[in-house]
Amino acid sequence: MTIPLLFEAGPLTPADLRRFSTLFTKTAFDFFPCDTAQLMPLGEEEGDPPPELQDALTQIRDNHLPVVDGQRLELLLPIWGGETLCGLLVVRGGEEQLYGMPPVWLDEQSHIISREFYLLKQSCQDPATGLVNGFHLLGELEALGQDEADGLPGAPATLALLEVYPRTRDADRSLRYIVRAGSCLASMLGEDMHLHHLGAGIFGLLWYGVDMEQARQLGESLLLRLKRENFVTAHLGITTVTPHDPQESGAPEQLLAQAWQALRTARLRGPFSLCGHVTAQDIESHPFRKTPESVLRKLRALYRGKSRFSLVLLRMDQEPASNHFSKRLRTLLGQEKGLVLVNQREAFLFLDGLDGEAARAWLADFRNKMEGIGGSSFSMGVATFPFHDFKKSALPLNCRKAVQHATFFGPDSLAVFDAVSLNISGDVYYNEGDLVKALGEYRQGLLLEPGNVNILNSMGVANIQLNRPKGARVCFQKALGIEPENFMALFNLGFICLDDNQAPEALALWERALVVDNEHPDLLQHLGMLYCRLGRYAEARAVLERCEELIKKGSRPGGEPMVVARWLGRACEALGENGLAIGAYQRAVSGNPRDAGSLSRLGRLYALEKQGHDIALALCGQAVELDGGKADHWYRFALVQAMTQDQEGAMQSLTECLRLEPRQAEAGLLLGRLFEQQAR
Questions:
Q1: Regarding the domain with residue range 295-399, which homologous superfamily does it belong to in the CATH classification?
Q2: What is the pTM of this model?
Q3: What is the pLDDT of residues 422-451, one digit of tens each?
Q4: Is 275 exposed, middle or buried (0-12, 13-18, 19+ CB in 10 A)?
């Protein structure tokens, strides 16, 4: 049995010069008095260096010494990963004395800074998961903060803390749960997105070029995928890094505190929930913000004792530059008592005795008159009374929901509050991570329109996130009763059936969904995985190859490249197409080097195809180090050990395999044969 902790980071690689570029570049400036310092990885996947550096690079490879150009004030220092050249540090400008130093001193500095980079890499590695840790995350946050302080224009960035808390009985199971979570997240996010493990199942994600709204969408997708991977709970807290909260300094500690507070709120919202850090500006600009009490008092006075009326919220489509909008309203309506100004952008209009249709006609004439006066466009949200069981006090908020509904039609639009308005308001709360509020909106929408398939689907997804599979099943079944070929209902109901061990039912639903949309990457991925589990490998291969092709094209979102490659490898392996399987597993581990299952299977295939027993042993050994709790990993390790005549090692691995899975018949047979050989 191996210890599930990694204390050795391994030698520097070209990929490390990209992965730790922020910290390494900062260290280079500490070492050398220069103007610029640039890291240049050298490897098969890195491409060719610039033509002007080709000659210098040839000298470095031949002589293993730095190259100096005193006239251009340029220094090329080799960066070593053990005895292997993994990159260059290109230093330019600064103090001229640096470029006149003896070659021996420069060579010494090359090895010293290479050693410093290695120690930084070691200090940034989390021993439980092998991912980068909080020290690396702090360095990235400090760099972003420095760029913003220097006034450098930058794309938005968001910080997310993801909690995948292991509820287990001992440390060993807890560690394996966290390692599995890290491996799943790495497969979902890809190699380019830095994933950090801060400890105790808290992962840190730094999303570059992503604002809060996009981060919420990414977070929702991430939580849904974790649920499909059978994690018990997962919560996400998000905050904006650039631009940061104007009331704060944007220091890394404050950003982490904001994300942590958002994470604490997410825990209260359900088993798979998220929350974003809310600023004062966010509260003021929320689509369903509270109407000021002074305005509510005026509205209550207007509709007191009235039995039929419409309330309209007028809102400019753009932020006002002046009070021109309110002047236009006063010019047109005069001293009309039904006009209640909220601010320079919004106003309520009370229409006594008018129902929804009459209000539409009146407002069409009103809009024409406003256009005659001139000015910016505005949208209108109408709420009527009486309407179902809504009280008069609910009308101002219903108007805001109707205005949000109107935004879907573009500027200068009008919407009357109805079931669709509640579907949209529910989606707003859902995207914010407030699943309970979202569910309340969807329920109200269904009371108004029981046959609304979109609301049924939305309600079903919210129930899934809240771990209410029975409620979700009812919603999707009702949706299919109305629209038998509704893709989202077929797709989501398939997952519920799969969770209830109803694989044939799930397969039937997904095959129906495939007829509706045969180019949906997520459907193709999960259908291919299910085909594999059911032993239908030829169909799995065809579906997964199609999925991989669509992901490469990037024409539609969805699909996880490393997961697809892993399962495609399994399908090809089962069909005896070992060459294709090896290629698929190689793609899987190149994107996620901690995919223990793919490493183990790849090692076995290398041994079978005689592509290097040493590599095969290393891959299988790495798999049991990463995830020693899987009996199959130990069995494949034993197979390769037996092929290399390491009978003692194979017997130890088989013993561990049978300890984990006593009914593993193949392991028992192999162990018996090894004992028989020893007896001879």
A1: Reverse transcriptase/Diguanylate cyclase domain (3.30.70.270)
A2: 0.84
A3: 999 999 999 999 999 999 999 999 999 999
A4: buried
